[in-house]
Amino acid sequence: MSVQTATSRTEVPEEISAVNLVDTKTYLEHDMDAYWRRLRADHPLYWHPPVDGKPGFWVVSRYADVMALYRDNQRLTSEKGNVLVTLLAGGDSAAGQMLAVTDGRRHKDLRNVMLKAFSPRALSKVAALVRVNARRMIADAVRRGEGDFAAEVASVIPLTTVGGLLGVPVKDHAYLLGLTKSSLSSDEADQAPEEAFLARNEILLYFSDLVAERRADPQDDVITTLTRSEINGVPLTDQDIVFNCYSLILGGDETSRLTMIDSLYTLSREPEQWKRLKEGSVTLESATEETLRWATPAMNFGRTALVDVEIAGGTIKAGDVVTLWNTSANRDESVFDHPYVLDLGRTPNKHITFGYGPHFCLGAYLARVEVKEMLDALRTFTRGVELTGEPRRIHSNLMTGMSTLPVRFLPDEAGLATADS
Ligand code: HEM
């Protein structure tokens, strides 16, 4: 059996049309590499049929097309949502206030305000904190010998990083981590959608309180900077600040955590690449970029077309939702040599893990620092790592990765001796 796409009118075989990209189970049950290869080759603009009472949407899988659509914030908008859950629900209540779902002049102005808050001074302070944290946590984990790398290291570093930048008190980090973990994805298969909704609301409430505290008692942190920021002479409202704190904590926590977990998992299975990292025959910078390409924790983002857009031999009609698949673009064989091979020395490596264009990830610098410091600490303090059990995968149609990673480290005593220096 085959079905027709909406406007490109190409035949779609059942092995494609049967894959439901909205269902989180799909990503655990299907060979998604084979699926994306097939879409890139034969159906670069594919109409995903409506499922579970939600509207259908376009799926774009080739690197060049994904880039072209990310770049185009004139004919496409993020203001009706940028992730499947809001796009298919018809909108995002933070549109026009939260950076990622704001476009036009307001987006430019807000992005400039946030970039100022991410000043080189603020960033270098946080980067130094990341290095200290990564070295301490990884040295401790290696000394313990065995444990869950996800819970003990990868969960702590990103939240401490964004928390440090925003000025979230350390005593609240564990509470926020519990909430961010169930906001976008779930460790459990059967988490009710209301739970994610409640978790997101609790984060918003938490930041409302913190913004009020910073207005009363200013500190040297991003929230305080935002309370003093204005656009065209108008100060940011509490709600503007709260939405953007929310977006920083969600944007900065889960993605980095999943990348760290994935990279250790991958290194445990790729002894030749681990050797290159350990011996220093690849730079930390290229290893970081390849790790980011390999993990691609944010599988997709999306837009809504404002006018008809011609792409990949078809037409996205005004009003249609289109999804851009980083997961597929980062394995596009027309851009990356042997894309399914991990090569820590890969250059060039123009992966699309952080998106592209006007909404390019605001936290890319920090995320790179986190991954780089993690790789540096691992290669210094350990001779290698072995899995001691099967990791658990997360359930999401936005993010991909693992929520647990049970491992045993082989300590490098000479390296460990430098840990406290
Ligand atoms: C935007 C990925 C880490 C904050 C984005 C986008 C992607 C992305 C793909 C584009 C979304 C779109 O076009 O709709 C990632 C990945 C990360 C990461 C893979 C880690 C490996 C961070 C961190 C922060 C952050 C650490 C904060 C400190 C943001 C913000 C935006 C964004 C605020 C919206 C930018 C805008 O709309 O102008 N991120 N991110 N991200 N990211 Fe990240």
Automatic annotation (TrEMBL):
Alphabetical UniProt keywords: Heme, Iron, Metal-binding, Monooxygenase, Oxidoreductase
Keyword Signal carried by entry: no
InterPro entries, per database record: Cyt_P450, Cyt_P450_B, Cyt_P450_CS, Cyt_P450_sf
Pfam family, one: p450
SUPFAM superfamilies assigned: Cytochrome P450 (SSF48264)
Source superkingdom: Bacteria
Homology family: Belongs to the cytochrome P450 family.
Record protein name field: Cytochrome P450
